[in-house]
Write the structure tokens for this entry.
Amino acid sequence: MRRPIPQCSPLAAYQAQAADIDAAIRDTLEAGRYVLGPRVAGFEASFARWIGVAHGLGVANGTDALELALRALGVGAGDFVVTSSMSAVATAVAIRKAGASPLFADIDPEHGLVDPAGIDALFASHGQRIRALVPVHLYGRCVDMDAIMATARRHGVPVVEDCAQAHGAQWSGRAAGSFGAFGSFSFYPTKNLGAIGDGGALVTDDAELRERARLLREYGWKTRYISDIEGGNSRLDELQAAVLQVKLARLHEDNAARHRIAQVYREGLRHAEIQVFRGDDTGHVYHQFVVLSEARDALQAHLASHEIGSLVHYPAAIHMQPAYASADYAPVPLPNTERWTSRVLSLPMYPQLPLDDARRVVETVNAWRMPRR
Ligand SMILES: *Cc1c(COP(=O)(O)O)cnc(C)c1O
């Protein structure tokens, strides 16, 4: 049996920068300040600059980042927030935690991202109660932000970009997270920029919005121990910020490595029963490389039998999961989403994946015989 190929590897990311990460951790330990200190402030500034916006705000995780962005924009009870059901459940969790309800638009069957035309259609039925749009840049690919921003302007609602899978992704040469009122990021270890624990951030060009989110991040404190508004606790710690600062220096390089792996897949994969997106992938940062098959489970078993890891993102769309199966959330049918969920498979993808391993994945997929039904 040949060496196993994992689907992703946060360990490989650590090992690639072990000396620098170890030094940053030791520095932080010896500095003696462990939560919301100078390393968090430094990382917030660096990350905002890297995205190309004025302000950053470190928070505890990506779910909190989305929730705080919505709250800072005044979204709350009784409001609808339009998003995609083809996302991490966290997107809906954050909307619910802000007190609002998700409203799902269907995806484009070409790439799995929300179809802006479907968002427009939801305004016809639910217009007055829609208070924000949350486009999800799924798999590292940007939603059509020209269409999203035009729709948002037409209806006078703000946009919060869910960039948890899209650190450094671009649309028309501009970074994901720089279009909306807020860009919301997760630094969960497997994301394109991953911490050694949980972490998240908001970016925005609006100093007032940043200040509102900052208050919400820590007990509503404008000054210490005095709560101006009701807030919570979603602080980022200094160890995560120090590690993120080290990793941010390599993020462009890491994203370029993901792109090279994706080109091996795009050029090599040839299988009559497997659909691969071969359209324009400019600006795509390949958080995941997905393929589609009618016999997805058999394909996944075939890969596993050759020691190749794969994952399904996601086995059930959000509106198909018991906790979110309310008809209120999916007032229109979502056929493309439901079909996508039954066919999609994520191949191995992480910056340190050797290109020879990517070629072995290609050969193994191409050699698969789809079972007769
Ligand atoms: C990971 C993820 C989140 C949530 O981030 P956490 O840090 O895990 O809370 C939100 N949205 C999407 C699309 C994600 O992939």
User: Anything to note?
Assistant: Residues 201 and 364 are 38 Å apart (CA to CA). The pocket of pyridoxal-5'-phosphate is lined by residues 61-63, 87-88, 90-91, 136, 162, 164-165, 186, 188, 198, 200 (CB under 6 Å). The first strand starts at residue 55 and ends at 59. The chain has 13 helices and 14 strands.
